[in-house]
Structure formats: structure tokens, C-alpha cells
Amino acid sequence: MERESKNESKAMPHGLTMQDRQRLTLSGVSDVVNFDENQVVVLTTLGTLTIRGTGLHVDQLSLDTGDLKLTGSVDSLEYDDNAVHGGGFFRRMFQ
Fold it and tell me: Which long-range contacts (CB under 8 A, 24 or more apart) does 34-39 make?
């Protein structure tokens, strides 16, 4: 039971705020999968989010609080919610 309460306390709400397609603030981030100046891929509580653009830079990241701040020219945001329901590669493959 103690284990369940720890997992529940880690469930963070996901939020996204963008200003002028130049500054992006995210909450509910559990991990950063990949990043470079053209693409940032993060795991959120609502799925995998891919951010595409140019000159992208992670200014601040706190996995403890689930907050990420990003600057650069944002061209697109794309969610993949298969990652939320999935688990590992083999689990998704055999569902």
C-alpha cells in the first residue's frame, strides 16, 4: 500500500504554455528522451510529446517537479499517447 501512495503522489498534471512560438513551458514531464536544436522528445503524464523547430534549447529542467522550459522557434507539437498505455516494446507489440 505504501508503494501505491508513492506512485500516486508522483502523478503530476500536464500543462503546456507557449508564448510567441519562442518560449515553451511544460509541466508533468517525467523524462527527456532526446533533444537537439531541431527536436525535443519528452515523456509526459499524458504521452510522449515531440517538439520540432529550429534553435531549440532546454533552458531549465527539473524531473523532481516535472517542469521544463524551452526556447527557440517552435514549428510543431505532436503527442503520441500509445506510450502512456504501452509499457515496453514487446508489450505494445503483443497487445
Answer: 37/72
Q: What is the pLDDT of residues 49-72, one digit of tens each?
A: 999 999 999 999 999 999 999 999
The DSSP output letter for 3 is H
Distance CA 29, CA 17 (A): 13
Q: What predicted TM-score, i.e. pTM, was given to this entire model?
A: 0.74
Alpha helix (H) residue ranges in 26-77: none
Q: Are 74 and 21 in contact (CB under 8 A)?
A: yes
- Residues 67, 27: contact at Cβ < 8 Å? yes
Closest CA relative to residue 66, chosen from 25, 27, 13: 27
